[in-house]
Amino acid sequence: MHIIESGNVAAATGVKLARAQVIAAYPITPQTPLTEKLSEFVESGQLQAQYIPVESEHSAMAVCIAATSAGARSFTATSANGLLYMNEQLHWAVGARLPIVMCVANRGVGAPWTVWNDQQDTIAQRDVGWIQLYANDHQQIIDTVIKAFKLAQTVSIPVMVCYDGYLLSHTYMPFEQPAQELVDGFLPSFAPRHFLDPNNPGNFNTVTLPDIRPGVDGTMMPGYIEIRHNLQRDLRAAIDVYGDIDRDFARTFGRGGCPFVEQYRCDDAEFVAVAIGSLSYQLRDVIDILRESGMRIGVVGVQMYRPFPSQAIVEALSGRKCVVVFEKALSYGNQGALYADIKAALYPIGQRPQVHNYILGLGGREIKTAQLLDALTLSCTAPDSFGDEPRWIGLKLQE
Amino acid sequence: MAKDDFCEMLSRSTPGPGDGGNTGSWRVLRPVLNAAACIPVKTGRMSCFQCWLYCPDCVVSKTIPPTIDYDYCKGCGICAEECPAGAIEMVPEAEAGPLAKEG
Fold this sequence. Notes:
heterodimer; A: 399 residues; Rossmann fold; seven-stranded mixed β-sheet; globular; B: 103 residues; alpha+beta; Alpha-Beta Plaits; 3 strands; disordered N terminus
């Protein structure tokens, strides 16, 4: 059934269809309507779950950690400073291998205070070990939430589903709401690999010593470095797992097919624009305009950022003349994080394209089609004029 | 998933004395049981055992009288704090004298 609703409600509907059992969240703009909707679903009995109000985001994640440790399918959502307030617990959730799913409505991070959209909040969390998936529209939000629950429990790694604050969270779009029976068939109930079991008591996430050592029952226990190595191994393997899940999803629901990067008019493209999130869809309009003038140009939206789908990135970008990376976030003191990652992925290939970096839209600064048009025209017509420093779009500095 | 895979995924251990290493060497204050005041000893019943229940290192036995494994007791004092009969006293190691070796 198609409904017209906001991106936050698309996310909440995905969580309801996935039958989350414990929800703990603290309201923060622009995520708030998502958690309000979930509390409505629970209150009205449409979702059989415990809704646990908490006094902070740190506690929200602590509740999800505890609930998942007890064997429940858990969900939370946040934005910006709330996400950063969770940081210590985010590391804990992934080190404990708890398949929590969290939505992040992307928002700029203070100071200075801002409630508007950019992607600094989740990009700053890229090295925590959580899987990061980004949605470009409302349909992708609801679909990705459902896929995220399956991915998380398959690999025992928590997943962030990220979408642009306001641009997606608060705008209304039609999207297909999957039928509950189909979701139930696609997403089996949560059977945790490890949980607090009174019949098989254990200490979880105990102190590890620098070296391996035998436990009290004589079995050799891994040390910290082994557990972290295995997390990295399982994260890299999660790329293929997500590919399989996306294929299953497409078979069941008829949507999907580009889990890692989404290409638009790229077949014969010499030039490719790259962006994460709704900006990649905004760029499609610009690509259409440039195509009319005969320019062979396309756009790639990056849907999975961690683990970084290096192979899909290389396949999408190798053989191009120039790749132009637009980012609403920075690795401060260096460059755009995606830009640096893309350059690293392209380094081993023979004929490397030129790669340019634009920073734009921070703190919700409006991104105008004309600005994107100018930027891409400059990259295509004078590709050699670019250095390695990112250029900024739409800055209004006082001379 | 096989149990072996599960064990390599996270730090997990079976509860028991010694899981944290030879923690008895950390001890500054030693819990000493005054059996005459201990509820199971006085009543002859398997009752109370708050010391056994609260010990974070599983070093107090659920026996009459309760015994304390000093190899692994790190002297945290929770048993003395929780004992409703005040039967456990925390004595500085320097004043407590040598420990009797078992066996």
